[in-house]
Design brief:
Elements (H helix, E strand, L loop, with lengths): L6 E6 L6 H12 L4 E6 L9 H8 L23 E4 L2 H6 L8 E4 L12 H27 L2
Parallel strand pairs: 1-2, 1-3, 3-4
């Protein structure tokens, strides 16, 4: 990786409807163009969960151009980092060429939370905050390379 080359990051989650989508949007937003960011899932949902969109919009992250994508779309591509955001996808994560750094973030699925709309949204908001923290720490690693 050279300073002039964008760092390629792929976030993976089973349905690519919440955690990996939020991570993609957050890194794209706070990465200020230093990263090429993608996300995908092994069983992509039809659309991004609306509560995920709302959670990141509260911190000025825009996801309107994003949509769930299949992991198959990225097989054979080179990435610098592949970050799994759920335990199920970690177990079936394919091997990518170029020996990317593999990172696993075991995050609970906010779409499985039961309760009131407020409680459900709070779960998405918590994941968004957790992802912001992890992504900021991830970015700190690149300041010293």
């Amino acid at each position: 990786m050279t300073d002039s080359k964008k760092i390629r990051v792929l976030f993976l989650c089973t349905h690519n409807q919440a955690r990996s989508q939020m991570a993609e949007g957050i890194l794209r937003h706070i990465g200020k163009g230093r990263y090429e960011v993608f996300s995908a899932g092994s069983e992509p949902a039809a659309e991004i969960h609306p509560m995920a969109v709302k959670a990141v919009s509260e911190v000025d992250v825009e996801m309107s151009t994003q949509n769930p994508k299949s992991l198959d779309l990225y097989k054979g591509q080179n990435f610098d980092y592949v970050i799994t955001t759920c335990d199920r996808i970690k177990e079936i994560c394919p091997v990518f060429p170029g020996d990317p750094v593999l990172i696993h973030w075991s995050l609970p699925d906010p779409s499985l939370v039961e309760g009131t709309e407020r409680e459900k949204q709070a779960a998405f908001n918590q994941i968004a905050m957790d992802l912001q923290t992890r992504i900021r720490l991830f970015m700190e690693l690149h300041l010293y390379k």
